[in-house]
Design brief:
Blueprint: H1 3-6, H2 11-20, H3 22-31, H4 43-46, H5 56-61, H6 64-69, H7 76-88, H8 104-116
Bound molecules: iron/sulfur cluster (2 copies).
One iron/sulfur cluster binds next to helix 5.
Length: about 150
């Protein structure tokens, strides 16, 4: 186990980061109707026998959603579970589509940022796919072009 993994979770730091995008992220989380329409646009969901743990909305709600729900007060085991969802079960390809305008890849990228603040990183092969930095930070439309393009 690495030194970073043994460190206690800094809930204050998580809360600070959550606060930066609280308005937008909470609106998106609340808007999810759990309709599962986004699922079929995720190739990992489709290629893993439609395992719900690969469903885009499931990954968002059980990472970022959980972090907001608990106000950042999570333990390291919970963060490790989130790591599985947002790195192993998602390559951040940006293909998932929500007809209600919820920007799922942006939310997953934000969840990654929060985990990295606690010394939790995706490792090979988890890091396959586009880096989070390629995603624009604003929400509001579905164009997943890199910031400024
Ligand atoms: S993210 Fe959108 S498409 Fe996916 S379950 Fe929620 S409302 Fe439905
Ligand atoms: S960004 Fe992640 S959840 Fe969305 S389609 Fe790609 S692998 Fe699936």
């Amino acid at each position: 186990m690495s030194e970073a993994i043994q460190k206690p979770v800094d809930a204050k730091k998580i809360k600070e980061i959550l606060k930066q995008k609280k308005g937008r992220m909470k609106v998106c989380l609340a808007a999810c109707a759990s309709c599962t329409l986004c699922a079929e646009s995720c190739f990992l969901f489709m290629s893993n026998d439609k395992d719900p743990r690969y469903m885009p909305s499931y990954k968002v709600l059980n990472s970022l959603g959980k972090l907001y729900k608990k106000g950042g007060k999570v333990n390291r085991a919970q963060l490790e579970e989130m790591k599985e969802l947002i790195w192993k079960n998602c390559v951040l390809c940006g293909r998932c589509y929500c007809p209600f305008g919820i920007d799922l890849p942006n939310m997953l990228a934000f969840a990654r940022t929060i985990l990295r603040s606690q010394g939790i990183y995706g490792i090979y092969p988890y890091t396959l796919g586009a880096p989070e930095s390629e995603y624009r930070q604003d929400l509001g439309n579905h164009t997943l072009s890199p910031e400024g393009k």
